[in-house]
Design goal:
By secondary structure, the chain is an alpha+beta fold. Helix content is 27%, strand content 27%.
Amino acid sequence: MTDQYDLVVVGAGVIGLSCAYHMKIDHPEAKILVLDKAAGAASGDTSKSAGAVRNTFTSEINHLLADTSLDFYSHIQRDLKFNLDLQFVGYLWLLTEKEYQVFEGFAKSMTEKGIKLKIWIEDDLREMIKGLCLEFSSDDAEAKTLGLENIAVGVQGVKCGTIAPELVARFYERELKDLGVRIMYNSEVTSLILEPTERLGLPKEPFIWQDKKIKGVRTKTGDIYAKTTVIAVGRWANNLLYEVGVDSYMKTKKRQIFQLSSPKIVNLLNTRGFNEHELLPFTILPRGGVYMRPVRAEKGFWVGAADDLGRPFVFEEDPKPETDYFTYNIYPVLSKYFPQFIDVKPNNMWAGQYDINTRDANPCIFEESGLLVVAGLSGSGIMKADAVGRIASALHDGREDATLHGGRKIRVRRLGVAERDVGLEKFVL
């Protein structure tokens, strides 16, 4: 099989689908193909996501990408009546006194951007979150061993919450099919086609003295040629790019989620006062980056942690969750702050991998020799996907600026390599 397309997009996760969608919207006449080795959309790390979304960032870039994407998702759900299970339940950071002193400096920067925050004092938290342990006695040896400190303040990001990543992907997939874009599943790309711009018909081309570019992809069923090849496969990008000497500027790390449900923790779900859903917000504990995502339909929570130091950069084709990781890392912190979780064990668990831009944890979107690469989403692919797709399309068109949902603009090359300008994110707690 040998086909010719204007664009071939490798990857049918939420990023690849968003890129294909906006490229088709911008160029309705373009012949576009989306390829994925899985049997359906969002079958890779998109489906392994915690599905948490927020606009609470100090970085202008982070805020812009997330805020406009969230506005687009709200539009889809509210105006287009396509359910994304988007719920603005909020993010709730439970902070120690020391953490809150640091946070106060960030709050000014965020409120100047129009980011809405709510501050809950200790008495509020005690009243609203039944069972939350805010204080540990001086003779609590376990708390001392774990390095746990008293909770002094809760900071709630209002335009934050949860979403179903697979539904976001399904929306883009539906729209692409309606627009006439071909999507081929069970189609693994084995390598990129590197050829001279002008073939001489000699064996073993291209030679180092020839001008050359990526002209498409090789699959197990044949070659597919394209004017531009878009690589949007997350952690799998290096497998394709390294063979042709292109850097993705990202490395991979495993992340794990554990699903917990029990009659002991159901009442914690139904927490009033934080949001219209009368649901406990997506909650981040003061130690170890442990988080809790409420899932009312499952009568429980998804829990995980951001374990950076000590977690190696290793690519795994099929990462497996580690029961011991929950038992010895997450559970001790979770059950001390929320005693309702004592003796509650996971009903289910799964693992995926982040494609982390180790330079600044922001997306890297650039062109090189017939390639358009979108990589390094660093765990924020869902919350930034729509903006990223618009930026990729603008870059492909050669436009200086990308217009994001709602009309705000961003200089495209700020997320590239040579002219990169993304700023440092300070709100990392």
